[in-house]
Structures are given as C-alpha cells and as structure tokens.
Fold this protein.
Amino acid sequence: MDVAGTNTRMANYLREHQDKVIGRWSELVVTGVRGRTSLDEVRRDLADLYSLVIRVLSEADDHAAGELRAALDELSRARARDGFTPSETALGVFSLKDAVYELVADAAEMVPEYLTFSRMIDDLGLRTFEAYSAAREQIISDQSTAMMELSTPVVRLWDGVIAVPLVGMLDSARTQLVMEKLLDTLVATGADHAVIDITGVSTVDTEVAQHLLKTVSAARLLGAECTISGIRPQVAQTIVSLGIEFGDIATKATLADALALALHQAGLKVVPR
Amino acid sequence: MDELPIRSGDDVVRVRQQVRGAAAENGLSLVDQTKLVTAASELARNTLVHGGGGSARVEVVKSPNGRTGIKLHFTDEGPGIADIGLALTDGWSSGTGLGLGLSGARRLVDEFELNSKPGTGTSVTIVKWSR
Amino acid sequence: MEQVPILKIGQTLFVSIQIDLLDDSVIRLQEDLADELAATGAHGVIIDITAVEIVDSFIGRMLSTIGSISRLFDAETVIVGMRPAVAITLTELGLSLSGVRTALNAEKGLEILNGKS
C-alpha cells in the first residue's frame, strides 16, 4: 500500500469537507463534555487540531507531527486541571473518526484511506491518556508539597531554644523542607538550641534515622546544638534492634525533658517564686 | 545552550556563575541552585585537575510533564577513569582522590550519567529539575 | 590573585571571605594564617563565610585544613555565618568539616573562643 499517497488523499478529503467535519466533531465533543465548555470554544480548539492533522497527513513539513503532539499534550493537561476524566478527553479525540465516518460511509473508494486515518487517530487518543496521567501526577505532587509546608511548623520555646514537632512520615522530601525551615529559623531567631520532637512520627526505621542525622548535621553547621525528643518505648527498642546509632546527639523521652536539658545547657535554672 | 572552556581556575569560577544564572532564571529554589552550582564546581574541578582541561555545556531542558530543568555536560580528553565503581563510592575521608567530587555531586542532582574509558576521556551529564 | 586580609583583634584572628576565591587565593590564605598564628600566638581564628554562596569540597577541605593548622598552634577555629543553603548542601555532600567549630555569627564565635559555651 502506498501510505504516503493514501494519507495525501485523506488530507485532501479532510480539507475539502473541513467545515462540515469540524462542525460535526464539535457537536459530538460538546455532547461529551456536558456543557462544561461552550460550542464556540470547542470549535476553536478543534479547528486548530484539525489543521495540524491535515498537515501531518499531507507531510507538508517536518514540524507538524511535533506540533500536533504538543497541542494534544497541552489539551490533556488543561483538561486534567479542569477536572475532566481521561476518557472524556480521549473520546473527544476519537469522535473525529465518527465525524469523518459519517461522511465517508458511502464512499467505498475511501476505505483504505479511512482505515489508515483511523489508526492514526487511535494513537493520538491513547497519547492524550498518557499525557493526562502525567499531568495528574504533577498536580498530586504539587498538592502534597503544599500540605507538607503547612504541617511543618517551627516554634520558639524560649530565648535561644526552638522546637520542630514532626508529625506523620519523614521521607527525603519532607526532610529537605524541615531542614530549610529549621535553618532559616535558626538564622532569624539567633537560637543556639533546636529540639526535634518525633512523638508524632509514625515509623522510625534506618532511613528515618538517616534523615534525622542529616537534619542535626545541618543545624550543627550553623552552630546549633540539637536534641531529639519524643522517643517512645517501642521506638527505642526498634532503634536498638536496627543497630541505629545516634552518636553524640542527645535524645530524650519527652519535649519537656528536652527543654529542661536545653535550658540547663544555656546556663539557666528554673526556680519557684 | 552555552559551551564553556575549562582550562584554568578562572574558568571554573565562570562555570559556577553561568550555572548559577541559568538555575536562577529557570525557577530553581535557592537550595536547589546551591546544590547544582556546587555539583558543577566539583565536576568542573575534576575536569580541570584530573581531565587535563575540557569543556562544559549548559542547557535548559523541559520534562514531559512540563517542568523546567538545567542540564550540564562536562567533557575532557584526559586519561579517563579505570574503575568507575570505585570512583563513585564515598571517599571523603581518604584525602585526595578522583572519586570525591563524583559521588558527592551525584547526591546533589536528580540525574547523573558518567561515561569514561581509560585513554578516551570522561564525560559527565547531570540534570536538576525545578520543583 | 586576591589576598584575603587577616585582622587581629586581641587574641583572635578574623578572616572574612567576601568573594568567589580562586584556588591560588585559597592556598595563600592558608599560608598567611599559619604565618600570623606563628607570629602572634593568637588563641583563635574566626572565619566569616556569611558572603559565601558556594562551598564545594575544595573549600571545605581548606576550612578543615585551617582547623588542623590552627590546632598545631594551640588555637581554635570557628566558622561563622554559614548560609542555610550551603549547610544543607554540605550535609548532602557528606562533608563533615571536622576540626572546626561553627557558630551563627562572629559574636557567638567569640563567645565560643572565650570559653563561654
């Protein structure tokens, strides 16, 4: 089969029946989106894609294929952001086949052209699915970063003593955030003691211990001494059984104990009035 | 895409400045900028000291899901690295050595690729993405 | 080559690194400090890196080396003003800066040298 010739014939056919096909395609897509976008907006988007499809089929230039892929990726990302499902976007692409089929149904000589064209549109529809997936992952990752920001407070316990209560899981991304906030607060407050409280940390394993050690190292480079507090009994047993060494970092059971230690190291004493 | 020669200590400083500029202009956070420039400094220094001089290329790249990143490419035509595995292990405390800059630089970036053969030189490519 | 000035105030030598140092300047600084320590018998060295944006393994080694040299002259070295981004990067690099103390600023650095901490 002469693929190039077939595609060129399809390109010409599409060009010839442009208005009718785009019109029908827009109708099908608008029904699919159930009123979330206006017919005019849809028509505009589709007209752009349509001319790109013609360019790719007629092999007019080298850039057309890349541009079509980019346009579809952008469409998928926008649809993902606006809450459409990936099927809705893909079906929108597939309905171009339906629009064209309605016209060629009675033209037997266009069968080979239609088959090749149909396969091309199938690929494009699948592509929107993948682009949608990637876009959703990015959105979820952005949201989880925003959540992490909110759940990492650094509080001032006393002159020169700050505390970081950690809650939830401590992975490398969270650790980066904790380090940045902790160090910025050390500089801003001039504190020389930081208490990292891990009462709320769900799992303390070797990896989490590494993250804690890194955080302490970084704080020490800014001249701050650190205490890790909130070591629960089971956590203590896990740490020992895993062979984790906290070396010369002071550890305490509660935040209160850690505060007492910090005050003592600062040369302060708490006395009744 | 910029191509920078690495033939002297001045060039290493210039590479740092170029990388810093590219990272800042393309949305990398301050910490990420610092990590990337530090990695670039290690690799540029390696190119100069162990590779007998070479060049660096700075490129702005885009990921499939729309993130921007900085890609750096260091090449030299020096003696090459005989034992890549050894070169990439942490060797901080062992004093001077080829591996020090490499393993450290790798930890600072998101993507790291090293190609080297004794006699044909070394090339290292790293990428750091904006978040 | 830039020569980094060394100030002597009391028993302490002060060095402030303001620019991106070239390798020659780094080595020159080490030599100058050794000379000054020998000549003055100073008890401490404060190196202010507030203005330093990048500390790679070369600079890191210099700082540790200066710490070792100082100790031979019975002096203590304190690195002050490290930027958060630099501290995070050094930690990731695995550079421990052994042999030197650290402090947030020159004032706290002096407190350490004078035995208050």
